[in-house]
Write a structure and sequence with these properties.
By secondary structure, the chain is of the alpha+beta class. The protein has 10 helices and 21 strands. It has 4 domains: 101 residues; 156 residues, no CATH class; 70 residues, no CATH class; 144 residues, no CATH class.
């Protein structure tokens, strides 16, 4: 403050000295520089104050952003890692060509051991038309383009259990549907339809039934319609067309005696799990083995076992400690009492306290006697400066003795409300809160910037007004001084002339 006042006084003194010198020398006054100096001196203190406050607010907003980014990144990275499954026991298939397996969220698979034999994969019914055709003048079928108008009518799709047979030529024929309880059908009307518009209508209306359509163009430009249903024995489908102008659309009917060829049968997957024979409508099976989703890939036998993520958990603990220390350093720097941009920010200080407390908070949900519940019990040590380190020997012993408990401590926030990822996520949400967290701090600092901007605008307006006033005053003064100098010059010359004539 003293420096700013001194600077203002110096500016006034300099300007005054310049004025006196100019008047004394008769060389004229630089009113532009003079006015600028006087105006700057008048508002130097206020301008310096606003500049300091503006710089402080900018630093505070930047500090808040840095802290929020650090804690949010920490929480997101750990939760993403946990959701990826690498920190949980995973099922392992002995024959991935037969099936693969993945853990379901929150599953406990340490005792997993199953023998599975896949006898048949689930399949979907598919059907293909002959070349799309229209009758010529003689009634003979002639190839039609995919956009040629074929007719109008009402199309009905129906799904249900289908019976199939093999014809003498080796092709597959289809019998009547035997719709199971709750089976569905859909009907829609077409007007002046082509095979393209028929396929589009099937895709729009048949999606709920699992039936899709595609138009395939042959090498010679001919068009063919291909239909596919959902997998499973109960997902056979028929297609029928009715209407006075539907004769040319009937070439796309599917069913008993219909023209479209059955190119694949709808069937369930057949498999045996630990000696129990079962069927499923899909090759993705999530309801046979608790906590495991099977993806069937081929026929044959496979066994399932569990693999512990010991190395991944060891690495995760180390990564958590390293990241914690980085976030801690950022928070300590920002909240430092001497020079910290957020030294007086209550939300930043609360976040620092919450981060430090996290190492001693109970996490996980394993109630087994002796099971670890805190990071400290995992072998994470806290130094006097607040930084963490890992006691590798202690961590290894805990992982060997209580692997399920350690997994539970690192379970994703979506499956464990008390795990470390959930704790960090909650801390991050608190930090971002616009009511009491760093979000509120940002709003407060931003509003203060707006207030400063208004003050700066006011000073600018006052400076402009003073500049105009002083410029006008000095211009008038300068004109009077010029007139006085002109008279002085005249008198000097006249006196000189008189003296010369007297001599």
């Amino acid at each position: 403050m003293t420096t700013t006042t001194s600077t203002g006084s110096t500016a006034v003194q300099t300007a005054t000295k310049g004025l006196l010198t100019s008047l004394g020398s008769g060389s004229g006054i630089d009113t532009g520089s003079l006015v600028t100096s006087l105006v700057e001196a008048q508002y130097a203190v206020q301008t310096a104050r606003l500049t300091r406050q503006g710089e402080t607010l900018t630093a505070q907003i930047s500090g808040v952003s840095t802290v929020k980014s650090a804690i949010t990144g920490f929480a997101t990275a750990l939760d993403t890692l946990a959701k990826g499954g690498t920190l949980a026991t995973q099922p392992k298939s002995s024959a991935t060509a037969v099936l693969s397996a993945s853990a379901q969220p929150g599953a406990k698979l340490s005792a997993l051991s199953s023998a599975i034999a896949v006898g048949r994969l689930a399949a979907a019914q598919t059907a293909a038309s002959a070349r799309v055709a229209l009758p010529d003048a003689n009634g003979d079928p002639v190839a039609a383009s995919r956009t040629a108008v074929l007719g109008s009518g009402r199309v009905t799709l129906r799904i249900g259990g289908a019976s199939y047979a093999t014809a003498t030529d080796g092709s597959t024929t289809m019998g009547a549907l035997t719709p199971p309880e709750g089976s569905a059908s859909v009907a829609f009307d077409l007007s002046d339809a082509s095979v393209d518009t028929l396929a589009a209508a099937i895709n729009a209306n048949g999606a709920a039934l699992g039936v899709t359509a595609a138009v395939v163009t042959g090498a010679d430009g001919s068009a063919y319609l291909s239909l596919k249903g959902a997998t499973g024995s109960a997902s056979g489908f028929t297609l029928s067309v009715d209407g006075a102008d539907s004769a040319n659309l009937k070439q796309f009917e599917v069913g008993d005696g219909a023209p479209m060829r059955i190119t694949a049968r709808a069937q369930n997957a057949e498999l045996t799990v630990d000696g129990v024979a079962v069927e499923r409508a899909s090759n993705t099976v999530a309801d046979l083995i608790s906590g495991v989703t099977l993806q069937l890939a081929g026929t044959g036998s496979a066994s399932l076992s569990a693999t512990r993520p010991t190395e991944a958990l060891t690495q995760a603990v180390g990564d958590v400690v390293d990241t914690y220390n980085q976030v801690l350093a950022i928070l300590q720097t920002q909240t430092d009492a001497v020079g910290g941009n957020l030294s007086s920010d209550p939300a930043a200080k609360a976040l620092l306290r919450g981060l430090k407390a996290m190492t001693l908070q109970a996490i996980g949900a394993d109630d087994a006697p002796g099971a670890p519940r805190t990071l400290a019990e995992l072998g994470v040590r806290t130094a006097r400066d607040g930084t963490l380190s890992v006691d590798a020997t202690a961590l290894s012993g805990v992982l060997a003795k209580y692997p399920d408990a350690v997994e539970g401590m690192f379970a994703s926030s979506s499956t464990a409300a008390n795990g470390l990822p959930a704790r960090l996520k909650a801390l991050s949400a608190t930090a971002a809160s616009t009511s009491y967290g760093l979000g509120a701090s940002t709003a407060r600092y931003t509003e203060a910037q707006k207030t400063l901007a208004k003050e700066q605008t006011k000073i600018t307006d006052q400076s402009d007004a003073m500049t105009k006033r002083l410029t006008s005053q000095f211009a008038a003064m300068n004109a009077r001084v010029s007139a006085y100098k002109s008279v002085q010059t005249f008198l000097t010359n006249q006196i000189a002339a008189w003296n010369k004539s007297d001599g």
